[in-house]
Each structure stands twice: as structure tokens, then as C-alpha cells.
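Consider this today:
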Amino acid sequence: MNRALLQPLGRWVARHRRSWLVRRLAGLSRHVLDWQANLDYELASNGEALVLQRLAPFAPQLIVDGGANVGDWSLAAHSHCPQAQLHAFEIARPTFETLRARVAGHPRIQVHNLGLSDAPGTLTLQHYAQAPALTTATAYPHPFEAQALQADVVRGDDFLMALGVQHIDLLKIDVEGMEDQVLRGFDRLLQNRAVDLLQFEYGRVNILSHFLLADFHHFFRERGYRVGKLYPDGVEWRDYSLADEDFRGPNYLACRDDRPDLMQALAAPGISTGP
């Protein structure tokens, strides 16, 4: 639509920005943008389950869930990928106890009450009993009552290689603002192209962590990976654009660029996997 024709409407909206009508239309517009961006955290509907379904024919052997929370994603991966061994990491002790109880009886899932980072040590968490999935070491202004917890962290490279892990088929990272530290903690495996596929979150917390979508693209491009955004019908593999820096997220994937077969299997209809 011709932008010049819309300018009078834009000026009218700006002058009447506090009116009931404009505020309602603005709210609806934000919802539409969120829907278009797939701002959905339900794995059954946002494409996460679809990734696991499409990965299953490749017979993954080792899956890592970094930030497992109460285990919904780990259990879904266990169901869809029956040959895979899973390592699920949950940093907050109260949440870990729920995770351990939920995956009891599933011997292919090993649980670890540890966080992942770029160096071993301890850190202070803000744990939200009302919303444990939001537990974070980042100073995010959640409206819930927080409890300070001390927690142990390890380098993913070191910990998993001590267990004999040499290759990861899928690494999922959901760590509420610590994505860059977790990625650096897996740098040895990533530099060796020993991780085929990664799933990570991006959103408003990245404003606070100062690790932007541009930084994800740069990090993965240097290591020979292609990044794409996850939608209900698959992944849109694409190069970085400043327009994508919208802090809506939520889920992106990175795939080794020498695995066009895997990228094609995960791609949304009509999406090219080329550069």
C-alpha cells in the first residue's frame, strides 16, 4: 500500500493515541504481530513437537535438554525418538525434584541437578515457585515472588565428554538469558561439528543479556551452522535481517550447514535450505 496515502491516518492515530479506539486497535495489532511471529510456548502447537517427529526418521542416538524444567520436552523427545538416550539438565532443586519424579521409569532419560554454563562454579538464581519455567540468573522483572537459590553449573563439553559423549544429535537450550554462556560451554563440540542440531530461545530477556539474534547468527555462522526460526509448519531457514530483531522469539534452530538433508526435512513448505 502507498505509504503516502497512509500518512494522514498515521498522524491521526498519533494524535488520538490515548483514545479507547486507538488503544484497542493497537492491542489487537500487537496480538496479530505476536501470532505472526509464532509467540507460542506450547510444544504441541508451536512446532517443537513437529521437529521431534521429523527428526525421528534420522534415528537420533543422543539428545540433550538444557533447561528441562519439569520434563515436558524431554518426555516428548523420549516418545518421538525411541532409540535416543537423553540427558536432561535442571538447575533449580525444587523443579529438579518434580522432573525426577516425572521421568522415573524412563531409563533412557538421565537427569542432572546442574545448570550449564561456560565455566564450572555456582551462581544465584531467582526461583519462582508459581512459574518455575521462568527461574533465571538474569535480573528479569517478573511479577512473581522470588526465592534466591544457590546452584551448581558445569561446562557442557566437559561434563558430557566425561560421560563418554562424543556426538549430540539434538541440543535444546532453554535457559532464560544464559544462552551465550551455555553455547560457549559447548564450544569444543560445536567447533568439531559434533552437534548436528540445536534449538534455542530468543526474546526480551536477550535485551538484558546483551546477546542479540545477530549474535546468535554470528556465533553459529563462524562454526558452520545455518539458523532458522521455528513455526508450526516447520523451520524458515534464513540469513540475519535487522527486521528479525523483534525480541518476540521464541524458538530458533541451528543446523550444521553440511546437513542439507536434515535442514530440508525440518523446513516449512516452500522454504529453501540454500544460502
About this structure: Residues 20-36 form the longest helix (17 residues). The first strand starts at residue 62 and ends at 66. Residues 1-36 form one domain.
